[in-house]
Design a protein that fits this description.
CATH superfamily: Isochorismatase-like
Radius of gyration: 17 Å
CATH architecture: 3-Layer(aba) Sandwich
Order of helices and strands: HEHHEEHEHEHEH
Shape: globular
Number of helices: 7
Largest sheet: 6 strands, parallel
Helix content: 25-40%
CATH topology: Rossmann fold
């Protein structure tokens, strides 16, 4: 993960605060969806190709979001909350390859393989839980996720996973488009770039999704 220095982080946070104040002064981009009464959790791409730094696109810096997500799903199961996982389909070299992917070749790292697309054991799905192989950034695009959520009468989507600026943002944006209540759990998501992570959480909170802490999400689930 590309980390900001303390000085750069301070300037970055000041810039975010300036944008936030501008939105507030005009009364725009600040609404919250709030929690509904029927949640589901989507764990986006916590597979080894992203969580294991032996792969070019992987990072051990996702350890904390993975561990937090493990706590969330363990508690959610006691409440019978649906849990959905996403990963990418594994394909050996063929003409049907993604335009850009964590699977891009790198001689310095482990070759992309079927293991890269397996969900990390720390957040492993149970046999009855849904695992979606998605072809694009959003967990919704080209998948039956929306239909699954509707059939389970879900109104609130708690989102964890990676990467904040790409698949998390795309999933939350599409969740709003389908009229679910998207909630990104800030300490349950991560990005290779700290700057991209911080900016995305601030920007998407203003526009497309709620953002809350893991503690807040657990309190919400406990009250169901």
């Amino acid at each position: 993960m590309n980390q900001l220095s303390d000085e750069l982080r301070k300037h970055f946070e000041e810039a975010i605060a300036t944008a936030d104040e501008y939105y507030k002064s005009r009364g725009i981009f600040q609404d919250r969806f709030g929690f509904g009464g029927s949640p589901a959790i989507v764990v986006v791409d916590f597979a080894y190709g992203w969580t294991d730094d032996s792969y070019a696109g992987g990072s051990a810096r996702l350890d904390v979001p993975v561990q937090n997500t493990a706590t969330l799903i363990e508690f959610a199961r006691t409440k019978n909350v649906p849990i959905v996982y996403t990963t990418s389909p594994y394909r050996a070299a063929s003409l049907d390859q993604p335009f850009k992917s964590a699977a891009d070749d790198s001689a310095k790292y482990r070759d992309w393989d079927a293991h890269a697309c397996e969900i990390d054991d720390r957040v492993a799905p149970l046999p009855h839980e849904l695992v979606i192989e998605k072809e694009n950034a959003s967990a919704f695009f080209g998948t039956h996720l929306a239909a699954f959520l509707i059939s389970n009468k879900v109104d609130t989507l708690l989102i964890t996973g990676c990467s904040t600026s790409a698949c998390i943002r795309a999933t939350a944006t599409d969740a709003k488009s389908y009229r679910f209540r998207p909630v990104i759990i800030s300490d349950g998501v991560g990005d290779r770039s700290e700057a991209a992570h911080l900016f995305t959480l601030a920007d998407i909170q203003a526009r497309f999704s709620d953002v809350c802490s893991m503690d807040t999400a657990l309190e919400y689930l406990a009250a169901l």
